[in-house]
Design goal:
The chain is an alpha+beta fold. The chain has a domain at 275-533: Porin (Beta Barrel), CATH 2.40.160. Helix content is 24%, strand content 34%. It is built from nine helices and 16 strands. Strands 3-4-5-6-7-10-11-12-13-14-15-16 form a twelve-stranded antiparallel β-barrel. Strands 1-2 form a two-stranded parallel ribbon. It has a two-stranded antiparallel sheet with strand order 8-9. β8 and β9 form a beta hairpin. α1 runs antiparallel to α2 (40-60). The longest helix has 30 residues, at 2-31. Keywords: Signal. Residues 1-19 form the signal peptide. This is Outer membrane insertion signal domain protein.
Length: 534
């Protein structure tokens, strides 16, 4: 309707202008009847003047529509009269008019304006937000805490609910063919105008989806477990608040010290203790009884095994490590076949070991190691008094310089020491012991050897009740090889009862081999008894 009214107004204006122009032209034509020739130049000038006057009056009545963003400007039609448009006649004069279309200005898209403003202020808003995020003392107000999002506020924790939700079918039901479920719930809420009682449940399901995605893509960042959180106890219901001791503020404020002086105070410096001490002791036995009239025969036997280990290690957590270990193993077994000796030592070891390391790079240390080994009791051949070994017979000393690789993870401790320079000393103190059994030449009491040495130690807690301790050594002077592999499996039933399995293998090609015998030697022992570790 607005456009129709505007069009009628323009036609009225154009009609009045054309009428005035026609009337003026008719008067001039009457005055020029008596003349035989029409002055066309003067007529054109007069028409141009009338056109200017008309355009001025029309422009004052032009309408501008600002509400729709379209500005319309109406200009008067300029009358162009040419010599061909003027016809000399007795009573008529024709003039041709041309209408000019109004100009339309197009405004820019408002979405583009908002996007441009967003890009302009994005950098400033980003820097401001980043500054607020890194400020630990900034108090953010206006944000109400919501307990429904507690899983996202805790450190990265593994929860069972996300996995159960992903693989479960709880809450699933067939889709309705008549109405979408979400639309139905929204319609019911709008009708009842009640709060959503399932808001916490919906938020929890969405949070579980986010956590499941986090577990899959960043498993190494999950540092906590839900089972550990369940063990935490909340704040007690009753808290006892003790009043602080009252002090005289005036005495504390008054001071007899001059400007620049400091009062004397007792300064306590707590030095860190870099020493750690651990130990283990056990006493175990086994027994087998066979009567003299047993139909298959045999002999009764008893055995007793004991051991003690003590370690004192120094580690400054930076460069220096100093390890010391004292180890003692002693076992006896009855020998019914030996008429001269009722008990015979079957396990006798006294070992002292020290190792000093200086860190070179990650897991590697420059190492100087000393290892001394001997036995305590004497051992005899069966049914004879020939002494096989005794205290300090033999005795073995190893001094090495090399590198030590250490790796610790979980319940596994590994140490591999490589000594390119190694000195070995073998000694026999008793004259009754044959030195050739222990890599010493006949007629000598000692033997010195230079070579290389490899030693590997591992302590691995395979499961909470099973511990494996192993020691492997390989010593050579490039002429012969002495290698030992000691394994101890401890099955701990509790803190005080355990079962131990000892498997000790040895290879020595420097001693004289008996016919039909190998250089490889083996010792095994299974026992049950008391065990204590600290």
């Amino acid at each position: 309707m607005r456009k129709i009214g505007l069009t009628l107004l323009l036609f009225l204006l154009y009609g009045s202008t054309w009428a005035q122009t026609t009337q003026t032209a008719g008067q001039k034509a009457v005055q020029a009847k008596q003349a035989t020739v029409i002055d066309t130049d003067s007529l054109l000038q007069q028409l141009e003047k009338d056109s200017v006057i008309t355009s001025t009056s029309v422009s004052e009545d032009s309408v501008v529509n600002t509400e729709e963003g379209i500005q319309t400007r109406t200009q008067s039609d300029k009358l162009a009269a040419s010599k061909d448009s003027v016809v000399s006649g007795t009573d008529t004069l024709s003039i041709k008019a041309q209408k000019i279309k109004p100009a339309v200005r197009v405004l820019p898209n408002p979405y583009m304006l908002r996007f441009t403003a967003f890009l302009k202020n994005f950098r400033k808003d980003y820097d401001d937000a980043l500054e607020r995020w890194e400020d630990p003392y900034l108090l953010i107000t206006g944000i109400k805490p919501d307990p429904d999002f507690f899983k996202l506020a805790f450190p990265a924790t593994y929860y069972e609910a996300p996995v159960q939700q992903a693989f479960g079918i709880d809450g699933w039901e067939p889709a309705s063919i008549y109405c979408h479920k979400e639309q139905e719930e929204k319609r019911m809420q709008n009708l009842a105008k009640l709060p959503d009682l399932r808001k916490s449940e919906k938020i929890d399901r969405q949070v579980n989806r986010q956590l499941l995605n986090f577990y899959v893509n960043y498993p190494t960042l999950v540092v906590q477990n839900e089972a550990n959180l369940k063990q935490l106890s909340g704040a007690p219901d009753k808290l006892e608040v003790k009043d602080p001791p009252t002090e005289n503020i005036l005495n504390a404020a008054q001071s007899n010290l001059f400007m620049g002086q400091m009062p004397s105070q007792d300064l306590y410096v707590l030095k860190p203790n870099f020493w750690t001490q651990t130990g283990n002791g056990y006493l175990q036995f086994s027994q087998n009884y066979i009567s003299k009239n047993w139909y298959k025969g045999g002999n009764s036997a008893k055995s007793l095994v004991s051991g003690f280990t003590w370690q004192a290690n120094y580690d400054d957590k930076q460069r220096i490590q100093f390890e010391n270990k004292f180890e003692w193993k002693l076992g006896f077994i009855t020998s019914p076949g030996d008429t001269l000796h009722s008990y015979t030592p079957n396990n006798d070891l006294l070992r002292l070991k020290t190792k000093f390391g200086y860190k070179a790079i990650t897991h590697w240390y420059y190492t100087l190691s000393v290892d001394f080994e001997t036995q305590l009791f004497s051992t005899y051949e069966t049914n004879t008094n020939n002494l096989v070994s005794a205290f300090f017979s033999p005795a073995k000393l190893n001094v090495g310089l090399g590198m030590d690789y250490k790796y610790t993870k979980g319940g596994c401790n590994l140490s591999v020491m490589v000594n390119p320079l190694n000195y070995s000393l073998y000694a026999v103190a008793s004259d009754r012991v044959d030195p050739t059994r222990f890599n010493i030449k006949e007629g000598h009491k000692t033997e010195n050897e230079f070579g290389s040495r490899l030693e590997a130690n591992i302590s691995w807690k395979i499961i909470p009740m099973l511990l494996w301790e192993s020691r492997f050594t390989y010593t050579t002077d490039y002429k012969k090889v002495v290698s030992e592999w000691e394994n101890t499996f401890t099955f701990a039933f509790n803190k005080y009862l355990s079962t131990k399995l000892f498997v000790h293998g040895r290879f020595d090609d420097g001693v004289a081999r008996e016919p039909d015998r190998s250089y490889f030697q083996l010792q095994e022992l299974l026992s049950f008894g008391l065990n204590y570790t600290w």
